[in-house]
Design goal:
Arc Repressor Mutant, subunit A; 15 strands; about 45% helix; Rossmann fold; six-stranded mixed β-sheet
């Protein structure tokens, strides 16, 4: 359903301050100049005490200051802090912090100048996570959530959109006969984009967003379906967040700053999106592997996301997907833990490029337990009334340890069907596609 951002903002008569998020109460504006100056002073003190971590940070971000005739000064430590946050020099970092403070005050005052004013604008996002923040940030256009998580479940080639959506709906909500109607409607709403002067696609760097971006670019490659202008942003990091996992982390003022980074979608990007989407839906992953290996210079974020997606194929070493192997590794290294803690460790520490939510992850954990030779045990329900269960314990079993030592093959012992895009994996088949991490290649075995 398309939502008007200006109307949404008007309905919230007393909006919370921009840092507040009812679903993520720990989120705050992460940067202040005073805080960063203190960090620089602490770093310099640690360097003068010859602490290895400080020496390594200087070697990585300001090696020239270590080779000088004089010992590093405060401005050298400030430069290290700036470069760690993605800026070339301290003054650029300081300017960013100042802009964040200005935008924060603007959003707090409530009368925010609309950055998308002057033309009929549609904001497309693969989820609802930034909907209210866009409204608080003063955007006035319409918002469309197009969120079919292609990083999970079957994404096969089909001749019919209805057939494709039926397959997706059956996977996403197998017990809900009405799921097809809502999902199909979201696909049809994409047709409305042609009624807008400009459409803005908001995505980040993970495979969840990048596969959806490929689908959107494939769709908009058909000129009649395209708005007058198509623009996009692919966010990989944001200053102040040591581990950036998504746009939903950011306060409204950050979304205003990101506005300057939008770029018009080029013909080369539309073509790349179409090629990637065809590779994602193919039952043969070799073409997608070739795209990932060659890189995607027109969309730099897409290549690494495709590489991560391909690693969900069974490993040539033990038949585990990367998600499955990381899960067993956590339990091996940290011991028995609750489902909630397992999810937290996976999402915040072990997964290099977080791409799925807790429900998708719990499916993978259940799969590791529901087999003739289970890799782990679960002593209750993984999900609870408020999300991932905080009491259910998950424990690694001896067979899981054998898998981690590459002494067994999960696919051979677990014949359950699963999909990686358009590739069907089934241990009952004579041959299945595998990923060889040592060679960076896929093959059938």
């Amino acid at each position: 359903m398309i939502v008007n951002l200006a109307e949404l903002r008007r309905r919230r008569a007393n909006p919370p301050p921009p840092e507040f998020d009812a679903h993520n109460p720990g989120r705050r504006n992460p940067l202040s100049l005073e805080q960063q100056r203190k960090r620089a002073k602490d770093l310099l003190h640690s360097l003068r005490s010859s602490e290895q971590n400080a020496v390594t940070r200087f070697q990585l971000h300001s090696p020239e200051s270590l080779n000088a005739d004089q010992s590093p000064k405060l401005h050298d430590a400030q430069q290290v802090i700036a470069r760690e946050n993605g800026f070339r020099k301290w003054t650029d970092f300081k300017a960013h912090i100042d802009r964040m403070q200005v935008e924060r005050q603007v959003t707090l005052q409530g009368s925010v100048p609309a950055l998308d004013a002057g033309e009929r604008a549609l904001h497309i996002r693969c989820g609802m996570d930034i909907l209210h923040d866009l409204a608080l940030a003063g955007f006035d256009g319409d918002f469309l959530s197009f969120c079919d998580p292609y990083a999970e479940g079957p994404v096969p080639e089909t001749q019919s959109l209805k057939d494709f959506v039926r397959i997706r709906a059956k996977y996403l909500e197998p017990d809900n006969p009405e799921s097809f109607t809502g999902l199909y409607a979201s696909y049809l709403e994409l047709d409305l984009a042609r009624q807008y002067s400009v459409a803005f696609i908001w995505t980040e760097h993970d495979s969840h967003d990048q596969l959806i971006l490929a689908r959107l670019l494939h769709y908009f490659n058909d000129a009649p379906a395209r708005p007058n202008r198509l623009r996009m942003i692919n966010v990989t990091h944001f200053p102040g967040f040591e581990r950036f996992v998504g746009l939903g982390q950011l306060p409204p003022q950050a979304l205003r700053l990101l506005w300057d980074d939008f770029q018009d979608v080029s013909d080369a990007q539309l073509i790349m999106g179409k090629q990637v989407w065809n590779g994602v839906t193919s039952s043969n992953p070799e073409a997608l592997m070739e795209i990932a290996r060659a890189g995607t210079p027109s969309i730099p974020t897409m290549g690494p996301a495709l590489s991560r997606h391909i690693q969900e194929l069974p490993s040539s070493r033990n038949g585990l997907s990367m998600t499955e192997e990381l899960t067993l590794k956590i339990l091996s290294e940290k011991g028995q833990m609750t489902a909630a803690r397992l999810w937290s460790w996976y999402h915040t520490r072990y997964e290099p490029r977080p791409f799925m939510g807790d429900s998708g992850y719990l499916r993978r954990v259940e799969g590791l337990a529901n087999a003739e030779q289970p890799a782990l045990s679960i002593n209750g329900r993984l999900d609870g009334a408020e999300g991932v269960n905080h009491t259910t314990k998950v424990e690694l079993l001896p067979f899981g340890e054998r898998l981690l030592r590459n002494e067994a093959d999960w696919l051979a012992s677990n014949p359950a069907e699963r999909w990686v895009g358009g590739v069907r994996i089934d241990g009952r088949q004579a041959f299945n596609w595998r990923f060889d991490g040592d060679r960076g290649a896929v093959y059938r075995r």
